[in-house]
C-alpha cells in the first residue's frame, strides 16, 4: 500500500476504494505501521507547531508556551489518537450484529482507521487556530466515509448504516472527551500560555 495513494483514494473516490480495502490482507499491526502512525501525527504536530513554535492562537492572536508542556501535549494527543482507533474498532465490531452486520475485528479496524483519514489530514489546519474549523469539516467528511464503508466492511445493510454510523460517531466523541480529560488531567496539563 502506498500511503499517499491510499489517502488520495479514500478521500477522493471512497466508493471504489472501500471494496479494495475489504480485500486487503494487512493485519492490524501492519495498518498501524504503514498508515496510522504517520497520519495520526498530523493533528498533534500541526497544533504544536501552531501554538508553541509559531505562537498563533485563535483568530491569529499571539501565544507562546512552555515548550516542554507543548511537547507533552503533542505526545499525549498522538498516543490517545492511536489508542482511540483500536477502541472504536472494538466497539464497531461488537455493535455490527445489532445492526444486521457481521463481526470481524480486522474489518472493523480498517473501517475506523481509514474513515479517520479525513480528520487526520484536516488536522494540518490546526497549525493556524483560526483555520481549525476546516479540521472539523474534514472530520465531518470522515463520518461520510464511515457511512460508505460500513456496508462494505461490516456487511451492515444500507438502510441500517445511518444508525450504525451515528452510534459510532457518538462513541468517538464521548471516548475522545473521556480519554482526553483522563490523559491531560492525569498529566496536570492545564493550558499554560
TrEMBL record:
Q: What Pfam families does UniProt report for this protein, alphabetically?
A: Yip1 (PF04893)
Asked if the Swiss-Prot or TrEMBL record annotates the protein with the keyword Repeat, the reply is: no
Naming one, the record's GO cellular component terms include: membrane
| Main location (coarse class) | membrane
* Topological relation to the membrane, as annotated: Multi-pass membrane protein
Task: Tell me which domain of life the UniProt entry assigns to the organism this sequence originates from.
Answer: Bacteria
Q: Which InterPro entries match?
A: Yip1_dom
- Residue span(s) of domain Yip1: 10-177
- Enumerate the subcellular locations listed in this protein's record, separating them with semicolons: Membrane
Q: Which UniProt keywords apply?
A: Membrane, Transmembrane, Transmembrane helix
Residues annotated as transmembrane: 35-55, 75-96, 117-144, 164-184
Name of the protein described by the UniProt record:
DUF1282 domain-containing protein
Amino acid at each position: 500500500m502506498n500511503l499517499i495513494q491510499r489517502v488520495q483514494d479514500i478521500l477522493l473516490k471512497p466508493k471504489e476504494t472501500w471494496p479494495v480495502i475489504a480485500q486487503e490482507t494487512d493485519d492490524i499491526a501492519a495498518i498501524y505501521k504503514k498508515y496510522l502512525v504517520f497520519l495520526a501525527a498530523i493533528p498533534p504536530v500541526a497544533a504544536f507547531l501552531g501554538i508553541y513554535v509559531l505562537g498563533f492562537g485563535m483568530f491569529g492572536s499571539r501565544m507562546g508556551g512552555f515548550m516542554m508542556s507543548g511537547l507533552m501535549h503533542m505526545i499525549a494527543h498522538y498516543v490517545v489518537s492511536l489508542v482511540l482507533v483500536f477502541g472504536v474498532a472494538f466497539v464497531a465490531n461488537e455493535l455490527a450484529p445489532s445492526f444486521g452486520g457481521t463481526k470481524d475485528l480486522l474489518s472493523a479496524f480498517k473501517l475506523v482507521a481509514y474513515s479517520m483519514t479525513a480528520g487526520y489530514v484536516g488536522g494540518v489546519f490546526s497549525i493556524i487556530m483560526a483555520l481549525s474549523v476546516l479540521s472539523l469539516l474534514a472530520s465531518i467528511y470522515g463520518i461520510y466515509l464511515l457511512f460508505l464503508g460500513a456496508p462494505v466492511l461490516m456487511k451492515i445493510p444500507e438502510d441500517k448504516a445511518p444508525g450504525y454510523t451515528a452510534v459510532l460517531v457518538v462513541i468517538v466523541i464521548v471516548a475522545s472527551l473521556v480519554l482526553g480529560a483522563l490523559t491531560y488531567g492525569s498529566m496536570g496539563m492545564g493550558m499554560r500560555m
